[in-house]
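Issue 218. Parser rejects a valid record. Input:
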Amino acid sequence: MSRPVVLIADDDEEVALLLRTYLKPLDVEVIVARDGEEALAIAQSRLPAAVLLDVMMPKRSGWEVCQALKAVQRTSQIGVILVTGRGDVKDRLTGLQVGADDYLVKPFDRNEVTKRVQAVLNRAPELRKEAVQAGRSALESMLLDRATALPTLPIVLDRVKEILIEQGEIGIVFVDLEQFEAIEAEYGWAFFDELLCNVGQIVSAEARERFRNPLVTCHRTGGSSFYIFYETRGQDLIAENASERIANDLRLKLIDTTKKRFPSIAAEQMGFFVGTARIDYRPQIRLERQVYHGMQTAADAVRDAEQQRKKQLTRELRDIIRRKRITTLFQPIVRAREGTVFGYEILTRGPASSSFRNSDMLFSFAREAKLAWALEAIALEGAMRRLRQVDFADRKFLLNLEAEMFGESEFRIHEMVTFFAENKGHFVFELTERAAIEDYAQFRELLSEFRDKGIEVAIDDAGSGYASLEAIASLAPDYLKITKGLVSTLAEEPIKQDLVRMLVDLAGKINAKTIAEGIETQEEYETCRELGIDLLQGYYLAHPQEELRAGDEEVAAALS
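Output the parser choked on:
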C-alpha cells in the first residue's frame, strides 16, 4: 500500500526542512513547493492527503491556494493546514472562511505538528468512505444542499438548458421562506435545518403534482430559496392571471402543509413568497444568461409582496411600541463545570401572536424601520418593571445595549443605572458594538462610572467582526460573550476551536469570564466545557422563560 503524500508549501527553506524532519515518524511521502503557484500545481496533479500551506508565499498566498483547492470537487477533500507566524483572531477567521481544516502558528513544536497532521490524515479515509457509501457521483456529493438533500443549481443547469433548446420554452417558479432569519434565531439552526429539509420535501412533492417533469433546486445564496423548472409546452400559461393563480395556490398549500408539520411555529411567522416566470428560447443569447435572467424575473415577481410585507411589519411594530405590547424574558446562563445557574440574560419579545415574538427579529427590524430608540425606551421600562419583582439571590442579570446608544442624548438610562447601583453586584451591561466607538478614552470613562456603581461590562459577539480586538483591549470587559458563529459546529472544526482557545486565553489575561451563547447540541456543550469556557447559554440548556424558577428546572432537566 502506497504511503500518503504530504505537501509542504513554504518559501523559507529552513522552515520546510524543519517540517519535513518533524513528519518523519508519520511514514509519509513528503513533497516541497517553494511558492503558491507551484503548490497549487502539485496539489492538483498529485492529490496529496494533506497540505501544509505557508500563508505568506510568493505568487499566491496560502489563503488563495486553500480557497482554490476547496472550491474544486477534485481537490476539495485534501486536508489543508495553514502555517503562519500570524495567529491573530482575524487571520484565523480568514483561514476558516477559505475552508482550511486546521491552523499552525509559528513557532511550533514537533509534537504539535505531528498531532495536527496525523489528525488530518486520519480524516481523509473517512471522507472517501462516506463519499462511496453515499451511492452518488463525487460531483453530486459536493453539489447537493446539505440541509435539504436537493440538488443545487449547477447540477440541474445542463438539463434546464437541454429542455430550453428541445422545447423552446421553460417555466420557473421561485419559492422563498418568509422570516427565515427570525425563525432560525428563535428556534436555533438545528431546528431550522429540519424545517428547511421538510419545506424542500413539500416543494418537491407539490412540483411533481402540479408541473410537467419538474426539476427542483435549493438555492441558499442570500437566504433559503427554491426554484422549480418545468416543461411548459402544451400548457396554457398565457391566460389572464394564470401565473398569479399558480403562485397563490402553491403559496397557500405550502403554508398549510408546513403549519401541520411544525405546529410549534407561530402562524404569523410562517409564510412564503412565490413568483413565476417563463423563458422563451433565443439562440442569439447565451443559454446560462437566459436561465439566470428567468430566475431573476421569477424572484423579482415577489418584490412588491416583500415591500408590502415590510410596510405591514412597520405598522405592526408601531402599534406594539405605542401600546407597549412587549414581554420581558430571562434566559439562563449556566456555570460550565457545576451545571448550576449563574444568572440570566434579559430579553425582550413582542406579543406571542405577532411577527415579532423573536427578540433578534424585533430589534433588527426596529433598526431598519428607524424605530430603535422608541423600542429601547419601552424595553427598558418593561425590564425595570419585571426586575423590581425579582428575588436576585446570588444571580447576575445581563442586559443587552448597543454601544452607540450611550452617545445619544435621547437615550436616558439614569433610572436604570440608579436601580442597578442600589442592587450592587447583580447587573451586567452587555455591549453590542454594531457601530464603531469613536472615542475609546471617553467611553472608558463612562464604563468606569458604571463599574464604580457595581455594574459590570460584557462584550457581545467576541470572535466576530463586530466585537473587534480593539474594543476588547481598550474596554477590558468583565465578560466576553463568544459569538454563535464560533459555537455552531465547534466540535467538528479545529480552527474554530483554536479561535475559542485564544479568546479563553485572552479573557484570562484581562481577568474576564467567557460566555458561549447559542449552544444547541450536546457536542457543542461538551466541546465548550473541554475548551475551558466558564459560562454557557443556549437552547440545549434552556429556552427563555418568563419565570426564573422555570428556567432553573429546565436547565436541571437538560443536564440530568
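Fixed in the parser; the record now loads. The first strand starts at residue 5 and ends at 9.
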